[in-house]
Amino acid sequence: MENIIGKQLxxxxxxxxxxxxxxxxxxxxxxxxxxxxxxxxVLPQRLAEDPGFVGRFQQxxxxxxxxxxPHILPxxxxxxxxxxxxxxxxxxxSGTLADLxxxxxxxxxxxxxxxxxxxxxxxxxxxxxxIHRDIKPSNILIDESGNCLLTDFGIAKLFTSxxxxxxxxxxxxxxxxxxxxxxxxxxxxxxxxxxxxGIILYEMVTGRVPFTAETPIATIFKHINDPLPAPHQxxxxxxxxxxLVVLRALAKKPADRFQTAGDLANAxxxxxxxxxxxIPTQIEAxxxxxxxxxxxxxxxxxxxxxxxxxxxxxxxxxxxxxxGTFFIYTRVLNPQTQTTAVAPELxxxxxxxxxxxxxxxxxxxTASANAKMTKTATVQPxxxxxxxxxxxxxxxxxxxPTNTPQIWPxxxxxxxxxxxxxxxxxxxxxxxRLWSQPNVRTGNALFDVDPGxxxxxxxxxxxxxxxxxxxFPGWWWLVKxxxxxxxxxxxxxxxxxxxxxxx
Length: 503
What we know:
By secondary structure, the protein is an alpha+beta fold. It has 12 helices and 18 strands. Strands 1-2-3-4-6-5 form a 6-stranded antiparallel beta sheet, with helices on one face. The protein has a 6-stranded mixed beta sheet with strand order 10-11-13-16-17-18, with no helix packed on it.
């Protein structure tokens, strides 16, 4: 962001930077009319170019200014000046919860205090139909008295609905603290915030977050698919009753979690109180909510028999992978044609399309990685036919995928080449703006791509719709082909269940 130190934004004189995140920069400013220091959250200038943003911003800021809670940082004012959009908040110099996290567990008494204050603030906002969407330690201020102040309510929602921002590389939400349904693009409710609060609780009792990976999307896939590592794996002193609370808060399915943040805080308080009194703690129906990442403390009590079908499916997938049979299916959307790109907003009840393995018996995919820049993927058809993938409906009560697509890893520079021995045809739109996997028909267009062509990822991954006429949430890459007579460049959409399967 441009240096605005010394500038006058409305009645506020910008003094010095406080911090900068993915969505805004924060400055200390002086308001001479009332002789006080304030914090200015200054949003990117490019948002002013979005014709709908200013209206949404004003509406959201008015709602946020009405929030009056002792553990929510209030909004004093908002406005636009010299092309900058800003929000005015109290200046708190003590720091954030992130500043207190040093990789070590917190004392249980301090953990209860912080979680209870945050839960109280969340319940207050949820009762007003407001969802935070980006709860994380750096969004939790700690004042001089040690009390929590939750910040940035509604900010993520503003950016989620701003296509110009999401098309330039912004990822809305923080993968380390993102719920499975948020990572998949589902419509969110308060239980998504409960999950994020559960991640903070996990971090406070173990000293670390449960899932980490080299890329943001890989972290999100872990939240969606990987079993939760039991907290006692990282802190053997975690009481069993506290661990039960953590596990329930982080259930994959929203219906299996605590239904409110207050329920989570109350269960935690009860667990600790009962520990002190020597009373066993009962956590209702926990066995149906979680799968632990490794064997350990009374694991059978946590894992329901409902997980047996998932285990069988995963075993079958491993057998299929071992035989070298893979299915590659990428949905191609035309950014020039709205009729092929617009879809309704996803909800928890929306059916999910998954590839039909029966359409894949003629293809084999192998892959090898270069340590620096390249990753190769070879497709070798065993027949001359070009099968057209079909899709089947997953039952609507099973919103979580059982097979994890593997995306091409992105190098630190954001560019990585994928060498494809195509051995066939690749589908694309007639305007040659999109690239897709081989053997996939899109409309009436089929284009030959020379064997040995290189597909280079120019930019990405980017979360969200890349245009106003494309409503599909998902991860996007800007790619181009090199070394082909039909050079193509454009955006490729990777849905949560489609794409490159693991080699």
